[in-house]
Amino acid sequence: MSSPGHGASSAVQVEEQFLSAGRSSEKLSLSTLQSKMKCDPEGYVLELLRLCDQFNSSLVLFEQQAAMNFASITGIGGDPTVAKDLGDKAMFLAQVTPFYPKHLKDFPQKLASLIRCASRNLPSGLRCRLAQALILLINRKIVDIGETLSLFMELQTLGDRTLKKLAFDNVIHSIKRMNQKHKNEAKNRALQNVLFSMLQEEDEVRAKRALVTLCELHRRKDWFDERTANAICSACFHPAPRIMKAALSFLLDYEKIENDSDSDNSDSEDETKESTQVILSKETIYKAHHQGTAASKKKKKAKLERAMRSIKRKQRLSTERNNNSYYSPLNHLKDAQGFAEKLLSRLHKCNETFQVKLMLIKLIARTVGLHRLILLDFYRFLQKYIQPRQQDITNLLAAVVQACHDMVPPNEVEPLFYQIVNEFIHDRSRPEAMTVGLNAVREICMRMPLLMNEDLLRDLALHKKSHEKGVSIAARSLIGLFREVNPLLLVKKDRGRPMDAKARPKSYGEVSAATDVPGAEFLSIVHNDDDQEGSDSDDSVGSGFDNDQENDLMTTNDDDEISSDTKTGESDEDDDLEDMENDLEDSEQDDEEDGEVSEQEDDDVHTSCDDESVGANSRKKDSAKKRKIADFDDQLLAADTSLRALKKLAGTTMGHAPLPESTDGILSNEDFKRIKELKEKHEARNTFAQHGLARSATIKVPDSDRLSLKRVDGATLEVHVKKRQSKEEKLALVKAGREDRGTYHSKTAVKQKKTGGLSNRQKEHKKKMPMAAKRSKIAKSRVEKKKMNQRAGKQFRGRKAWK
């Protein structure tokens, strides 16, 4: 290794060479020299060599000072100018390294070794300066992130906030940039192994930084794989309580983190915010295509397209957030049952505060509900916390609801269920506690309806008459649930109309296997409606034709028809009589229900027209028989000519909703699009019915898969009743709304005080008109002046009375 004296002598020799080459000896600043070296790299090789020697000499001097124990707590205190000079030279060489790859090929290694060996003894400013130089080399792809990942993770543990943020941002952005175009799995796996090994260490600081880095990369979806998710979940079993709390909070609040604004998506969010201000009216679309010059129309079209793209992007983001697809790192658990059992055992041994225990309870419940696990000891453990005076009782009840699903035996959850009923829902309980209890019972019964029996449901339904609005709303929501799930458990007046008497909850372990394409019944319903409309029109035409034929036959040869009718057989006559009797019974029932026809009128009708009824009955027999024969012939023809009709007939007899005839059992892309549209309409109709915006529509209870994905919040179980405001509160709200509003000014006053240019309307008056328009305007004004003069000369002023 060279000495300082040798470095000084070499610098003098280099300077003599500069002077002999004819260069000026004026001293240049590093920034000026850097710009000149970037413009002409070959002309400044000697200056580069001189600066390299100066950097090496200052590095040797710095190492000697560190070896002689001149270091203090904050860094080297002997000569601060040496540290500043070393940082400036390192940054300068990092800037010009891409232009001199041969001369500076050893510089990145020297810089990294310096930071790795003496990072704890370096001053804070010098550490940040050297780290920035190394980050610059990484950004220019001179140094690989795989070589420096462990170094930057180590720099985050030094306690320097500025350096920690700098190193953390560099790791995140380097990995993001590496996976931006395509993902290199081998390289990602090597980097993940470094962080996973740090996470498993007992050192709390190093493990915490590794966990924070993994969580951030997973949240940004740079490392959105099973290995990262399982590593984050395994941090819940770390011996350090801080690591466990950090992992629990990330797993529980992942849904909230997903909805937060990300720094990477700030541009798209700004565009969506701007797009909300653009109103795409018919006028703007018309102006963009038909008004103005070609250049102005081009600009308007471009602006319109940008607005449309931003609106579509906003709609796509909203649909992605509001759709049923749910993601959590818990979805990637390899052994969900083992994970939940380990968490439960740690919960039994946990000596932390109640908040930490509550986080463990919520995570166990989330895992059990998401993967539909069977963890029977968990329900027994929760019984000791189910009390109205318990801290955070709503979150505990939400965890109970989350842990219930249809795969758990109902007899194992019954003690917990009845404890909620007995502790919260009784006459001496507060209205807030009763509301929370009723809402919790409703949510549990939505997932496990077999827990409810008839007596208990009727007792709970009586609370609908409570004077407290929150209690009555909760009771009515419970009644509304069982109107769909099992209405026979309710009292008759609470069942509602229309009632499905066959509605029953599935028994324990029952599974409904799909025998058809999901949503195909919507197509069959629409197709049946079209068929009914077409058949109605055909029947109307056909019935008129049949009636004409019947009238002709009745007038020409009645006797021949009667003789032919007697020869057809007694069986047909019996069938016709039975049909007539059924029709008469139906008509009598309709008359009785409507109450429009009285018994006296019926007697009068029967006594007055006995003779006419005989002839009418015979005519009805003949016409009904002919219709039956014609319909039967049509059915035979349709069955012979169409195999689809047979399939449809078989589907109706089997009780399944048949597919439309045009598909032959094979659905096309248009059919699937139609199914999607009909599903969306059906869901919209159900939501309108839930909010009272539709007259009659059945509220569909979500299935078990959707309920397992649904995240239950404890705030939804509380009372949400808007209290009546007093007059003072209303006035305060009115005044608060007027603060941002300016003082009132009339339009004329605003126009008079206007400073600046003219309005568009005023400018239109000053526009130069074409000659034809000017001449017509002048001619009109002359005609009007003539008329005014004529009227003024011939005006009658009256006659004096005394003349």
From TrEMBL:
Domain SDA1 N-terminal: 92-466
Compositionally biased region (Basic residues): 763-803
A family per Pfam: SDA1_HEAT
Protein name: Protein SDA1
InterPro entries, alphabetized: ARM-type_fold (IPR016024), Sda1 (IPR027312), SDA1_N (IPR012977)
Family in the record: Belongs to the SDA1 family.
Reported function: Required for 60S pre-ribosomal subunits export to the cytoplasm.
Alphabetical UniProt keywords: Nucleus, Protein transport, Ribosome biogenesis, Transport
Region (Disordered): 528-629, 725-803
GO cellular component assignments: nucleolus
Acidic residues bias (residue ranges): 530-539, 547-563, 571-604
Biased composition (Basic and acidic residues): 726-743
Superkingdom of origin organism: Eukaryota
